[in-house]
Specification:
Helices cover 55% and strands 12% of the residues. By secondary structure, the chain is an alpha/beta fold. It folds into three domains: 192 residues, 3-Layer(aba) Sandwich (Rossmann fold), CATH 3.40.50.300; 122 residues, no CATH class; 94 residues, Helicase, Ruva Protein, domain 3, CATH 1.10.8.60. The strands form four sheets. It has a five-stranded parallel β-sheet with strand order 2-5-8-1-9, with helices on both faces. The longest helix has 38 residues.
């Protein structure tokens, strides 16, 4: 996709923040360009990591998440504040790469499952027919010629069985046997064994759970299921049997290294305040030091093999209310050469957020209430009033960006949502008068709005 096409796709879901969209679109195109370089030049080019600076709720996470969806790339979102320097209680920074590989495994598995689905369906059909029409030859009388007559009888029975199987096959495909009961032998899932490990064991990343499951002998149990339910169970078994786990693991590692995206949120929380006496700052500098080699490029050992982080794209984000990007270690700053500042949302932005995106929150609530027969209609003046309330509350209390809209609409439609199952079909018009009646008292009372909105 070209950068313009990427921005157009992002515009369908995210309002404003054009500079951030352009930055990630160019970074994505550079990733494609990198894949088409010669091997020698490819070794020299590194991803241009991005640092997004802006308050909460303005679209930092959503931009990155939508970008990963567009590319089909492995993507994870982590909070920098949950990692600690080795030796303190918390997660090891290398675990983010292991999580990214797991995301890649899931993506590759989904793709491979679609490839083998048709073959699995054929096998499921054959297994269902064996359960519905088992072949049980009857004993033939032994004569002096013996074996020849017995063989001929068995052949006749076999041919008759094949004709019966084909009749059942047609009925099965026509959906006439969905309620018929069959007996399946299923592998009984053993209850998972919790393996408690310390920090050192986490670094080893051993699949102890898988090893224990292999040591425990498999147990089979019989269950009577309808054909419809048995088909789903058998399909899952056949798909798993057709998947080549080794090739999936290899492809997932390659996909992680070449297209992986790690979104590190709250990176401002690991900025040191400069006062080394504060206990909260004890491991912040250490987390930055541990994070540096991951972003620079190192090799992380996972249960699926070694993963190089040199070409993985890192997008960091933070509000930087009480700190500045310059408070990060100089070496870490240098690994995020592209800096984008996201802007606070205005009233007009709120109006666009409420009306333009394909999954706008107004449409979400309308669809939810439609399930109970409630028709919700929004007027222009109602949308403007909602945007005005959201902007006002953000300015007078804590600014949480677009997340304020969800709080406000939830409060606005609270009574309707509660009464919807009991009041039958009805229409609700959300106009300016309706919004003011529901929210004006809270909006005017600043102390109350801090708790309610």
């Amino acid at each position: 996709m070209t950068p313009k096409q990427v921005v157009e796709k992002l515009d369908e879901h995210i309002v404003g923040q054009d500079a951030a969209k352009r930055a990630v679109a160019i970074a994505l195109r550079n990733r494609w360009r990198w894949l088409n370089l010669s091997d020698e030049m490819r070794k020299e080019v590194t991803p241009r990591n991005i640092l997004m600076i802006g308050p909460t709720g303005v679209g930092k996470t959503e931009i990155t998440r939508r970008l990963a969806k567009l590319t089909g790339a492995p993507f994870i979102k982590v909070e920098a504040s949950k990692y600690t320097e080795v030796g303190y209680y918390g997660r090891d920074v290398e675990s983010m790469i292991r999580d990214l590989v797991e995301a890649a495994i899931s993506l590759v598995k989904t793709s491979k499952r679609e490839e083998v689905s048709a073959e699995a369906e054929k096998r499921v059909e054959d297994r269902l027919l064996k359960l519905l029409v088992p072949f049980e030859p009857t004993a033939s009388a032994i004569t002096e010629e013996g074996s020849e007559e017995d063989s001929a009888g068995t052949d006749d029975q076999h041919a008759k069985h094949l004709r019966t199987v084909e009749k059942f096959r047609d009925m099965l495909r026509d959906g006439k046997l969905e309620e018929r009961m069959v007996e399946l032998s299923l592998e009984q899932k053993s209850s998972p064994v919790q393996v408690f490990t310390n920090m050192g064991m986490e670094q080893m990343d051993m699949d102890l759970q898988g090893m224990l499951e292999k040591m425990v002998p498999k147990q089979l149990s019989s269950r009577r299921l309808s054909v419809a339910d048995a088909r789903r169970v058998l399909h899952e078994q056949e798909v798993e049997g057709l998947l080549d786990k080794d090739s999936i693991n290899e492809e997932a590692v390659r996909l992680t290294e070449e297209t992986g995206i790690v979104f590190i949120d709250e990176i401002d929380k690991i900025c040191s305040s400069g006062d080394s006496g504060k206990s909260a700052d004890v491991s912040r500098q250490g987390v930055q030091r541990d994070l540096l080699p991951i972003v620079e490029g190192t090799t992380v050992q996972t249960r699926y093999g070694s993963v190089s982080t040199e070409k993985i794209m890192f997008i960091a984000a933070g509000a930087f209310h009480r700190s500045r990007p310059s408070d990060l270690m100089p070496e870490l700053q240098g690994r995020f050469p592209i800096r984008v500042e996201l802007q606070d949302l205005t009233r007009d932005d709120f109006i666009r957020i409420l009306t333009e995106p394909s999954g706008a929150i107004t449409r979400q609530y309308a669809e939810l209430l439609a399930v109970d027969g409630i028709t919700v209609e929004y007027t222009e003046d109602g949308i403007r009033e909602l945007a005005d309330v959201a902007f006002h509350v953000n300015q007078t209390t804590q600014n949480i960006g677009a997340r304020r809209l969800q709080t406000i609409i939830e409060r606005l439609l609270e009574d309707v949502s509660f009464e919807a199952p009991d009041c039958g079909k009805r229409s609700v018009v959300v106009d300016r008068a309706y919004v003011m009646a529901k929210l004006d008292d809270i909006r005017k009372d600043e102390d109350l709005s801090r708790f309610v909105l």
